[in-house]
Amino acid sequence: ETAALTPVAALDLPRYLGRWYEIANYPNRFQRQCVGETSAEYRLEASGKVRVQNRCRKADGSFAEARGVARRMGGEGSPRLEVRFAPAWLGWLPAVWGRYWVIDIDPDYQLAAVSEPNREYLWILARTPQVPEAAYQALLARLRQKGFSPERLLRTPQPGSAAG
User: Fold this and answer.
1) What's 133's DSSP letter?
2) CA angle at residue 124 from 134 to 137, to 5 degrees?
3) What is the pTM of this model?
4) Which of 52-66, 89-103, 140-154 has the weakest average pLDDT?
5) Burial of 79 by CB count in 10 Å (0-12 exposed, 13-18 middle, 19+ buried)?
6) Which is it for the CA torsion 148, 11, 128, 96, positive or negative?
7) What is the Cα–Cα distance from 139 to 157, expressed in whole angstroms?
8) What count of other Cβ atoms lies within 10 Å of the Cβ of residue 85?
């Protein structure tokens, strides 16, 4: 039995905001149309909620965009967020808020891993479209210790990457 997944001890949300590039993910139904150049942008609103904009390139060369909102669960510094991409009027339905846990992040906030308690989803995000291979492999080793299967990860083609 795999131990319960624990997120990072604390997340400095202002430092986490901005643009992240998807380096790899567990294939999932939401991103089936994406062929590469996947990124996420997080911006803080006056309300305290975080505006989320995900985009990726589709096979026909056009871009797909998904806009959503994230809210922090728990107190200041909590690494547990919930993200919603459904229409705002469905917000009262608990099912539309997906759990978004930052489970690994380097001290410089350059490379992160995001999942949820069931380990069904996994995203590796970085501030740059490419990451040093040694840093990536070290992250995979940490993820394996947390009960993930790095071999399930699909590398995301980014401009200038070997995968792209």
Assistant:
1) H
2) 20
3) 0.89
4) 89-103
5) buried
6) positive
7) 19
8) 14
Residue 96, classed as helix, strand or coil, is helix
pLDDT score recorded for residue 159: 83
Say which range, 8-12, 89-93, 147-151, has the weakest mean pLDDT: 89-93
| Rounded mean pLDDT, 38-43 | 96
Strands (E), 26-153: 34-44, 50-58, 63-72, 80-84, 97-105, 111-115, 122-126
Q: What separation in angstroms does the CA of 20 have from each of 4, 8, 13, 56, 93?
A: 27, 18, 13, 12, 28
Q: Tokens representing 138?
A: 């070290």
pLDDT at 93: 61
Q: Supply the pLDDT for residue 48.
A: 84
